[in-house]
Predict the structure of TonB-dependent receptor domain-containing protein.
Amino acid sequence: MILTATNVERYYYVLKLNILSTLGTFTHLAKASLFFIALFACSAVNAQNTKTVSGTVTDNEGVPIPGVTVSAKKSGAGVNTDAQGKFTLQVPETVTHLVFSIIGYASQEVEVPASGDIAIKLQESSSQLEEIVIIGSHASGRTVLETPVPVDIIDLKEIYKTTPQISISQILNYVAPSFSSNAQSIQDGTDHIDPASLRGMGVDQVLVLINGKRLHQTSLVNFQVGPGRGQVGTDLNQIPVSAISKIEILRDGAAAQYGSDAIAGVINIILKESTGVVEVSATTGAYFTGDKSLKEQDKNYDGQQFLTTFNYGIPLNANGGFINFSGSIEDRKRTNRASDYEGTIFRDYNATDGNGNLLYDITQFSTDATDDNALAYFQANNLTGADITDAELARRGTTRRDYTMYVGQAQLRDAKGYFNAVLPINENFEFYSFGGIGFRQGRSSGYSRLPSNPSRYLPEVYKDGFLPHINSKIADKTFAVGIRGTAGTWKVDFSNIYGSNQFLFFIDQSINFSQLTASQTSFDAGGHSFSQNTTNFDLSRKFDVMEGLNIAFGAEHRYENFKIIAGEEASWRNYGLDANNQPTVFLRTPTLDANGDIAVDTQIRPGGSQVFPGFKSNVNQYRNSYAFYGDIELDVTSKFLVGGAIRYENYSDFGSTTNFKAVSRYKLNNNWTARAAFNTGFRAPSLHQVYFQTTTTQLVNGTLSEVGIFSNTSKLAQILGLPKLKAEQSRGFTGGITGTFLDNFSLSIDYFYIKVKDRVVFTDAISGDPAGTPSQQQIYNLLLQANASVAQFFVNAIDTKTQGLDAVLSYADRLGSGSLKVDLAATFSKTKLDGDVKVPSTFEGNESFFFPKSSKTILENISPVQKQNLILTYALNNWNFFLRNVRFGSVVDPNIADNDGNYMKFDPKIVTDLSVSYSITKAIQLTVGSNNLLDIYPTKVDKNKYPGGYDDGRFRYQNAASQFGYNGRFLFARLNLTL
């Protein structure tokens, strides 16, 4: 159960090779981009004339403001003010204006003086309502206040300097109440990629963009019991945090504007454009817990993390061209929150003598021995399956700690590199490109295979049982190119973005039981990949009609490809099936019958690699789609805006759909604005959901079982009468009010309602019967061929409705000699099943198979439906203080039930973050602090009320429900260098 030195050396060697491979691939991508840049730049790249601009930034009272972003307009060059509010910036001679921006103050644009320093005074602003947003409208230049739909702006480049979190998904989880994401445990591949959602909806019902272009999804299907079950999301953590300038979160359905998936909202990641500044950061930290019972090997810390990032931009010519590079390397150790195993580890047939030799050999009855022979042996040796754990631990010189599972965050190592480039071609057009590559290697464990369970225990190979591990190898690539500009009075944007994700599985410390002692212990289990190529052509124009009319239209083509990569034969095959596909390998173990007499228990040894059977067959499926859209926004008056969008989209595999959106905004006065939007939307079933199939080990009714996941195009699906998947359809409404009051306060409140029809869900397990009807017998035989005992499918089975309220209150003002900013945000949402479960005629009366109670709990309560946060930031000279309290609402875990079948509810909890930053010099800033300062844990599982969920100490805290994790207090230190 302990990672050996040999394995450590091997994994570090593999990591090194893959980092080199990653950097090599990234170099090729960068070369490709630079090749295009060179075509347009020619000799202009070397003809750079620059000038130096310097100055001081203060507030109205003359107090210096540190950390103000000073950027050269249309250049990308930028710098931050130091502790005295001073800055010095090299800009091209052609730059005429500078832009000054910082949270808490209104952005200001000033003309570059001919000579001398400049003095800037920023006006205080209680929020970022003046900031220009890109998402949610094809009309450029709108601020947060002017958009008819709610948009959050997360200034990531500033937040990252002080926040304890180091991944994008976790930063957003603690900043944006409508966003939810948490690391999973004992969830197979999901341990290595964090599912993320908006407004409590599905992880596949939020669209992610990068620089306004569609970002590809992962190739991973989340099929274990947890958030996003049966769904496919986007891996936000594939992008280095150092590459991101800000993140926009559109909290409204936008399928009519952006296409499939944008039902709950849209997340737009905007990359940095700065040049001439080197930014390097190094973060180290670990989880320190005060709960002594959770200590591993007498340590009170684990989960050590180290992350180093860099960012640097280079100006390419005197006309504003630039290329910005970013990267990061992360090493994250695993955590463990399982207590010492309290259950049965050894039974009487596992007994050893004083020299460690087994006294009984029950493996002799694992072939074709008759029950009578096995029964005679058990009776002769008085073997009843009695618990002898304590005595046997003493004989073997081990403790219960040696048989503890690892329940916590997975071990991860990754390396990522990204770039963002723009190069003007002439006065009207510019070439742009962005993208990058990331490699991640993960290691997580599954369930312990203990000697007390003979169907998953082979003493000749693992005398004390074993803890199998899943090792991941994830490669992610993105590359985009485009040309944009103005042609006459029209704005034109022509682009292409390609993205791919590959997820490979390697299993070790495992065994294929159907091979007995002939089995290997490490397996190449195969994997899956997904690639997507999207081409867009967009046109927009403003007309002088009333107070302004903006018209936009365009077209999109998208190609998608999903592959399953078969593993080696031993990873998936059951070698114990005869020519008729019937099992020939049995295991006979002693038990006591109802009369207390010794009896024989017969089980089938499972095939394939334990913990994660490999993929059996290669799959290579693709589809095409094309779309046309139109968008119009009219400022009827300076106060009243109306708009609408319509989009037609056609898919090669399921047909076409047309969706629309209508918006309106009215400025009640200079401070307050009312807004509303209605939309229809859709989500095309992912290729993964249509064609994914594998066999996996899952906990079914408290027992480890091999579960076959079958596509709807499979023979088994046809026998069961399951229809093909179709697109989800949605209708949504958002309405609210936003504005400022008392000079220093801002407030926004938005109500939302989303109804989804024909939602795709993951079914419960169904099994065949070798003695049943011909159909049941056929199902049974097909499952045997797939090395499975039960089957699951993807089906359009339910309708849902989600409604709730988002609210944000902000305050900013001077406090003493410093500046204070306070943000209070909250989301209250609820998702409910709407109507009856939809089943085909072959399943009438068995609706629970399609959508059981556990699935309903996952839909409605596995993630917090309420979340509130309070953030206080105080800047004083060289100091910056950050305090945040986040209240995570209650969740329910369908894996934890009492004897009456009632699932356990986990109480709301408040998690406190605190950090203190000090600018040692203009270039060096040191930050220390903590996430979960008070060492708060979720509600403990009551082992008496929920013995199955507690699982003899394995799960003192829930591992599936997504609240805020169960790792405890995280202490960190970060060094930021800006040169």
Q: What stands out?
A: Residues 197 and 203 are 5 Å apart (CA to CA).
